[in-house]
Amino acid sequence: MKSLFFSCLYVLLLAGTAVAQPEVALRKGDLLFQDLDCGGMCDAIEAVTQGFGGHHFSHVGIVDISGDSVMVIEAIGVKVQRIPLAQFRSRNKNTIWLGRVREHPEEIGSAAVSYARRQIGKPYDGLFRMDEDKFYCSELVYDAFRKANGNKPFFTLNPMTFREPGKQQFFPVWEQYFKELGQAPPEGEPGINPGGISRSERLDVFPLK
User: Which residues form the signal peptide (predicted)?
Assistant: First the structure.
């Protein structure tokens, strides 16, 4: 169950494009995608979805720059928090991928960060239901960019699934997890995931060097 707090639900595919880019300076509002090796739960997530180009992402954060400090705002652990980029990068050895908004990146990114900052300290959404009082990682990103886009959806919600591909039963790890919470999995409810966000046509995506 502890591994939940170091993973983030991503269960559907969205269309997107990978763009080869040279090394670039990070901007406020850039998205950073990670593949966190969190055990059985991450394995179950990766079995039902992927990011662009076949990559697997189980976590996403938002870049926040203040002066010379590069930070990342993310929903992880037990709450929304803001940590140094170096700490974010230290979690695993897999490549981190950067997603940058194609249109008006500075304007939209800055507004998204302003919203995300106001959510710092709010609890992690362990039930994976869209709720502005709690957040899982991609839910925070979704709401931040929705607010930045005049309260209109910027990324796309899709029905979530916790079932094994081609089968009716839930993954055992999810079944056990929700049993411990005394809740039914939110199968079919609208949600969003790091892999899906990475495939959005609104983003250019490339490795972070």
Answer: 1-20
Q: How many Å from the N-terminal Cα to the C-terminal Cα in the chain?
A: 32
d(CA 184, CA 17): 35
- CATH of residue 121: 3.90.1720.10
Describe the strand order of the beta sheet including 97-101 as a list of residue ranges. Answer: 79-84, 69-76, 59-66, 31-34, 97-101, 203-207
Q: What Cα–Cα distance (Å) separates residue 173 from each residue in 47, 50, 84, 185, 193?
A: 12, 19, 31, 11, 18
Report in angstroms the alpha-carbon separations of 19 from 96, 200, 201: 14, 12, 11
**Residue 146 corresponds to which tokens in the numbers above?**
């929705």
Range of the domain at 76: 2-207
- Rounded to two decimals, the pTM is 0.87
Question: Quick one: DSSP state of residue 72?
Answer: E
Helix 137-148 and helix 105-118: axis angle, to 10°?
120
What values do phi and psi take at 16, rounded to 5?
-170, 180
Instruction: Convert the pLDDT of each residue in 181-202 to its tens digit.
Output: 999 999 999 999 899 999 999 9
Domains held by the chain: number: 1
